[in-house]
Design goal:
alpha/beta; 4-stranded parallel β-sheet; 51% helix
Amino acid sequence: MNPLPWVGLVVSGLLAGGSLAGLLVVRRPYEILTVLSGFAGLTGIGLGVWGIAATNPSPSFLLAATAIGLAGCVGGFGLVSSLMANVHRCSNSTGRIHPSDPDTTAIIALADIEPPRYCPGDVTAEITELVDAGIPESGIGTTPFLYAAQKARYRAVGDSSPELRQARALCELIDTMLDSERFSSVTLVACHDGQALASAVSSAIDAGHRAIIVASLHVAESFCIDREKGGVDALRLDPDEVCVSFTQPLWASDALADHVASRVLAVATDPDATGVALVMHGQPGAREHTHATFDVQETAFANRVKLALVDAGIPADAIRTCVQDWRAPDVTETVRHLAALGCSRVVVVPACFPFENLVTLLDLPVEIRQARVAEDVSVVQVAPWKDEEAVARLIAEEIVSVARLMPDAAGDDANDY
């Protein structure tokens, strides 16, 4: 018996199954290649089965050939799925220090934002981090579908998340509010792998800066932000040579809480009949214990917003905090509860989300629709604050406040800002 048709059948099966997994995983421009290779694999399976059946008309040979072709498909699918663990993150395009006077204080804005475009390596890194946080690991049969789901989410927003663009716009606005003779241009650094901030700090030092301020653009210090700060600690910089200072997260800012409250009041036509759902992020698994500060800070900020809304006339019982993911109560449950309390208008506020992303553009609207409230109850979602001038001014003031407390490179008195 000639073994070549059987070998070709196995190879074709591997190609077909691997192409199916690849179609679920690869970026959109490469989908046509996986479709063509998949057709080639299926064609090879068909020709292989036909050739074996022609030379061996026994039904047992036909069944064996079909089973081997299908087994090859399963094997190819599993092989590509297992290889995804070795795919690296996409390169981080942020964090370059622009040429400036080295005598100025370098300003780095640190942001925990999602990648602007779908990248399989970023999904791999996210899955790995979730497993480390205590989430059960997915099997090789389901892993490619996780990539397909994320790819579909990006496709639903036009293949590009606006979060990075909005963060850059906020940094540009902050830049205009700082004294260019004392501060360098604001450089945006997106949390990446724990080394993005350290790389930007090293770049600033190489450019001659001896005073560096890292400004937070977020309400609370997340796991990713904490990891980036740990990367700076690992540099073991001499404080007598280089001073790196950090602004505090925005959770303690009454001004920002009042600003978020004002955005709610702008759509609350009747405060007495308005319910408000203040949405926080939430954390998976073990991070609730290892990084509990994140939840504490977001809750404290949400309570500040709640106090501002109560002062404006919205009943305290009609203002509820909820979590977008991982914990209860979720957005759907909270909207239903507020509607059951008799609120004719429910305002959903991503209070701890500074920028628009896949969550605010896709997930929150879906969770709101799932509440299925009565027709006489209107549900309004408020957009994040993005690059509004009031927020930029607040962060600029935080930078100046930190700068006043910083000693110069020689360890003398604080700079006079």
